[in-house]
């Protein structure tokens, strides 16, 4: 009886293997067909502060824009501080989004969660005014976050984009906060993109001497001096 059962069991196993092979053959691509890999998760996410208009990739034209993009992407990959300057509507924030989407920048600074070091790849987008509003909220009674928590999240992200740089108050306190933040990111070779509707002279005046010195060593300013695309 055992011998009979073993024969039946062996036949069942063989049948299951044959069925599995047939399914694999059916799912295999035809000759010449190339399997398409799954789409990569976008690094430009609303959860990281990006407006919905920048989540989807855009096809932009303009030889100088693309020249700037290639150069800026290289600067960012090297961990530099990059500034995009010029009038509204010239594609400064869009360029930052496409650089973020390309992913040629470091991973986040690892954090210990009690069991292991956790790392990710975050392109964090913040408007300058929102950074300082978040810091002021930390002083409110019952706040769950400290100023250190806010600044650590900004310092640890693989890429930080600070937009509307011209809208901040430029107080001594704000200048010290920015200098400290950019210095931390510079020390860990994590790139920062600053976006402002400033001229070069105005941006120079808005940055501390130490930040300007770091930009000269490992960064660059790009002036978007063409007309607004929004008017086209």
TrEMBL record:
InterPro entries (UniProt xref): IstB_ATP-bd, P-loop_NTPase
Cross-referenced SUPFAM superfamilies: P-loop containing nucleoside triphosphate hydrolases
UniProt keyword list: ATP-binding, Nucleotide-binding
Pfam families for this protein: IstB_IS21
Stored Gene3D superfamilies: P-loop containing nucleotide triphosphate hydrolases (3.40.50.300)
GO terms assigned for molecular function: ATP binding
Domain IstB-like ATP-binding: 82-207
Any single biological process term in GO: DNA replication
Native source species: Luteolibacter yonseiensis
Name of this chain's protein: ATP-binding protein
